[in-house]
User: Fold this.
Amino acid sequence: MKTLSAGWPEIRERVRAAEALALFLDYDGTLTPIVRHPSQARLAEGTRRLLRKLSCEKGIWVAVVSGRALEDVRRMTGVARICYVGNHGLELEGPNLRYVNPMAKKCRPVLRRIVRRLKEAVAPIPGAWIEDKGFTLTLHFRQAAPAGKKLARGLFQGVVRPYREKKQVRITAGKEVFEVRPPVRWTKGTAVSWLLDRRAALSPGPVLPIYIGDDLTDEDAFRALGKRGISVAVGAGNPLTRAQYRVRSPAEVGSFLRRLLLISERSADRAGRRDQRRVQRNIARSA
Assistant:
C-alpha cells in the first residue's frame, strides 16, 4: 500500500481528468482524531469550513459516512447541503434523500431488549459502556483495564449469543468495540454503492469516488469501490488491506482535502476564462 504522498501524482491526474468527484469521509479517526469518548470528537472549525467549501464546488458531492447515529454525526459535523450516512449505512439523509433500512426498523424491539441487558451486565466494569444508536448498539471498552476488557467481551458474548443463534442480530467488531446490528448484510460499502447508483440514475455521467476511513468497518467500502475509485486508509499502524493509499492522521486527511479543493478551484477558474474568451469571440464576430 502506497502512502498518499507517494501516490499523489497518479491521484492528481485521476482527479483532474474526472468530470465529478464523490467524496465519502468517515468521521471518527478520519475527520477527527480518536478520543477517549465519542462526545469529545469535535470537528475543528477549519475542517468544517473546508467541508463547506468542497460541498459548494461544482462537480464535488460530499458524504460523511459513520457508524454513529445519523442525527449524531449530522450534529457533530454541522455542514448543510451534504449527505449523511449513519449506523454504517442503515440510515441516510441528504438533499432530496431520506432512507432507513426496513430490517433496521423491524429489529428495534429486539435491540431495545439487548440494550437493557447489556447495560446491566457491564455497569460494574469501569470504562465499559453501551451506546444505543437506535438501529444499532455498541459496546465500548477502550477505557477499561485489561481485566475489564476481557470481562466485558465475555459478558457481551453471553448476552447476545441467544439472539445471534436465532439470527435476530449480527455482530461486528471495530477498534475495541463490539456492535450489534440488524440481521441484514447492509454495510458502509453497500451504502456507498447504493448512493453511487442513485447519483448515476439522477445525474448520468462519469464520477470518481473517493473514500477515506480508518476503521475495520471502512474495509467494506474500500472493497466496494475497488479500482474504480480512490481509497485511503487513515493511521500509521492501520491493518486495513483493501485501501490503495495510506495517510498517518486526520491532519493529513485535511491536507489531502485542501489539495482537492485547490484542483477544483483552478479547474473552475480555467473554465471561467474559457467561457469569457468564447463570449468575447462571439461579440467580435457579431460586431
Q: What stands out?
A: The chain has a mean pLDDT of 90. Residues 2-101+186-275 form a domain with the Rossmann fold fold (CATH 3.40.50.1000).
